[in-house]
Amino acid sequence: MTPIHLPELRDDFEPTRASLHAYARAIAVVPRAHGVAHPKWWHVSLKPRPEGLVTDPVPLPDGGSVAFALDAVRHEAVMRCSDGWERRWDLRSGMTGSELGDAVTGVAAERGLEGGYERERYQDNAPRRYDADAAAAYFGAFTAVHGILERHRAGLGDRVGPIQVWPHGFDMALEWFGTHHYEKGGERRPAQLSLGFDPGGSRYFYSNPWPFEESLVGAPLPHGAVWHTEGWQGSMLPYDTVRAGDPAAIVAQYARAVFELAAPALGRR
Q: Per the confidence metrics, is the pTM higher than 0.90?
């Protein structure tokens, strides 16, 4: 199998990553308000595609549909309808997340999608920087990680969700659902194990079982991986550690190790 290479993500790329995060929140606001709601909120996520990150189609009142994208090739935000109509915004213009979100919702109203928007989800008035080379590196990382996760996902059977980029955290993840169920928020929910990649800050892969058993902390993990309990509970593996070796093999070993440790609470396949 062809090895997968992970691009370098330098510290000075962070302003561009923060801009992409703000723009992801902005284009996801229409699917959140008008998309076909999924009980696991999959309708609000972005999906990795060769051209960038794309939302699920949103039905239009006239019977057509519209989708939104962050185009990694042209460095544009794109709103495209099924009848061929489209609108584009240059991500290199320095627009804020709020400016893009207001533009997107305004144009969506022209196609009949009005009201219901949670503006606070894309509220962002910080000056934005966007470097095309840094953006290409981040999209390259998402594409490569998608390939790694897809290889792992192929062996997980039918209890696994799609690989998604979540706009609120700008992380990419898949979810495997166990056979055990627990109460949360007044609902009975299946145990699950997330495997994902967060490109922000220290940049890492993560694997988080739910429910999280405190007894897991201290259990041995593969080289470089550590348990994390401040702010969120789970485990993390530095991106640069993965990048230094065979990324697909390292992530697979890490994922298997966390699964085996969490399996009693999750339930087997």
A: yes
